[in-house]
Amino acid sequence: MMREWATVVSWQNGVATLHSEIKTSCNSCSARKGCGSHMLNKLGAKNAHVMQIASEQPLQPGQRIELGIKESSLLGSALLVYMTPLAGLFLFSALFQSLFNSDLAAAVGALLGGIGGFIVAKGISARFGDREAFQPIILSVSLPPEALRVES
Description:
Elements: E1 2-12, E2 15-21, H1 36-43, E3 48-54, E4 64-69, H2 71-100, H3 103-128, E5 137-141
Antiparallel strand pairs: 1-2, 1-4, 2-3, 4-5
Helix pairs in contact: 2-3
């Protein structure tokens, strides 16, 4: 099970809004200038992910909770997102190459197949994304901030 800590932003009617910080190892690597991951991290959100999760237990802002998600569902999602467009790219490229016998047609087929694969992956993920296996679960809840007292 993959685990991650998040901070509660708010809790209303059994739904908690959570704030999870992005962890990246880009600052510890010496190949930052030539690394594609470093460039992609610059394009995305800078510091956090915000998500909502169901919680029957009342939570208070500032409280930390540990979330978990099964590796199998994470692997299945990654497989869907990466392999569906790739399969569409190869399939349509080969189909257009055999039908029109042209490299330009194969390139157009690859482009259409890749875009079609992304659309198919988005449709499948929208259909199966609400299943319980693909949702994170609360593993543990820390004490509320006002319950902790440090005396020196």
